[in-house]
Amino acid sequence: MTPALLHALPPIGGMDDSPRGRVLRAAAYLFHEQGYARTTVRELALMVGIQSGSLFHHFKSKDAILCAVMEEAIIYNLQQMHHAITQGVTPTERLKGLILAELESINGKTSHAMSVLVYEWNAITEQQQEPLLAMREEYESLWLTVLDDLKLEGKVDHDTFICRRLISGATFGTALWFKPNGRISIPELAEATLAMALRG
């Protein structure tokens, strides 16, 4: 685990090139690759290129680093969702934008952090989960608002909550098989997911 590997990871949002951001980028990568429990503070510091004790100038504990990785992932992707909605003129365009943004969050720049958010959720306490759940609720409400609009247009047949669950199952499932240089691109995948979600 070297600082050179860290520089290959894209700096985004709060996981930028600031000292704190570099710690979060390294943590997202290591927690994703080998799990939160198996990652040591020493390994994390080594990847960032600092002494182990220096990590605690930015964070109180290892679990505080985990919470921050999750928080930054939600904040960044919530911003992308809001942007997608403002860019869409019709509900269909807004849904396509949301699908595309979610696929990019899962398979693009924030893929490590999003994986950590999903698979390490039980590593944090209920108290630590509370602010993240509040942001998650805002994230999901954006989807439900757009799906409700599409239901009014007659383009969605099913309960919008169920429809959202089906879409999220499809998008998050791509983490298991999607390859950036494979037979389908993320925009093409977004088109296919949109077609499955809408009536006709």
Indicate the mean pLDDT: 92
Flag low-confidence runs. none
**CA-atom Rg in angstroms:** 18 Å
N- to C-terminal distance: 50 Å
Helix fraction bin: 55-70%
The helix count comes to: 9
Written as H for each helix and E for each strand, in order along the chain, the element string is HHHHHHHHH
| Shape by Cα distribution | elongated
Beta-strand proportion: under 5%
Structural category: mainly alpha
Largest sheet: none
By DSSP, the count of extended strands is 0
Tell me what you see in this structure.
The chain is mostly helical. 67% of the residues lie in helices and 0% in strands. It contains 9 helices and no strands. The chain has helices spanning 3-7, 19-34, 41-48, 62-87, 91-107, 111-119, 126-152, 160-173, 186-197. The longest helix is centred in the last third of the chain and has 27 residues, at 126-152. It is elongated.
Overview in brief:
This protein is mainly alpha-helical. Helix content is 67%, strand content 0%.
